[in-house]
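Many introductory courses stop at the sequence. We go one step further.
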Amino acid sequence: MKIFNRKISNGVYALSILSGTIIGVGLFSLPYITSKVGVFVILGYLLILGVIAIIIHSFFGEIALKTPDFLRLPGFAKIYLGDLGKRAALISTILGLFGAILAYLIIGGEFLGSLLKPVFGGSSSIYTLFYFALGAGLIYFGIKAISKVEFWGLILFFIILILIFFRGQPFLRIENLLLIPEPGFLFLPYGAVLFSLWGAALIPEVEEMLKENKKLLRKIIPIAILIPILVYLFFIFLILGITGPQTTESALIGLRNVLGDGIVSLALLFGLLTTFTSFIALGLTLKKVFWYDLKIGRNLAWAITCFIPLFLFLIGFQSFINVISVVGGVMIGIEAILILLMYRKVFPGKNKFLIFPLALIFLVGIVYEIIYFVK
């Protein structure tokens, strides 16, 4: 019985970690994107990309089960694709983390500004710089204990969302969910939705958590992706149903125009908590990539990690939707193609009818996002 209970608890913990990590900053982009493309289009994207995400994560899970522990994506790529694969994995990992840190900086600064500007005044940029300075300091000293509250901060955040649901019921309008799609936005959701469903980098760590119950990974992966999809649908229904055409890029800020301060400030506070802990966790991860994998000095690794995203923000990369779209469409696309190539190498002949079509989808997505970004 104890063994059975331990097996269940390990499985639940691994599921909560993977699912809780997938539910991240991408969540805040979905109501605004839905306001541009319509509910039925976003449903289609969540369904199709959800199935694709389950397949790719499951493929990586099979690779992880076949490979010795304590490796991450660049290590896997080195074994199965050689030095070129390792370099491609490192580049996609580094650029993807830069983009994700920039996204958290943009939205975290917005949340902090929305909380404090009514009290202290000042420009939005000042609050973003304050958010950055505090986060960069914690990344420098390696204080990672704060990242342990990330999952529970997310749970508290969704409790606040339920409170918003009850508080906002009188303002929910079905017609807000039936906004006419704007022309030219049909492909807008691709990168952002893919970003919102992706957690492949955590698969090896989840596999290690399961210890002697590693085969549970095959069941955990699809459930861990289905949970975020359901959460996203609820979040879209809640925010878009209340704010309609007034929905903002970062979702929560637009609520203040309808619900007033009070509970919205509480939601912003927990939104700030979840983005800040993720900002630190991603910063620590990227610092270690430069420090351990690329053998760059500790202080220089910290400076590169923190100040490149800040520099990008200061020169004008401040569109939250554009940033996560590029990271999702390009960097995650490269990561997915690497996983497909590794799967083909490890399991020759298995699911071969899926490899080429999926790789083509990601390749087209990469090209589209680059062209869209350059324009």
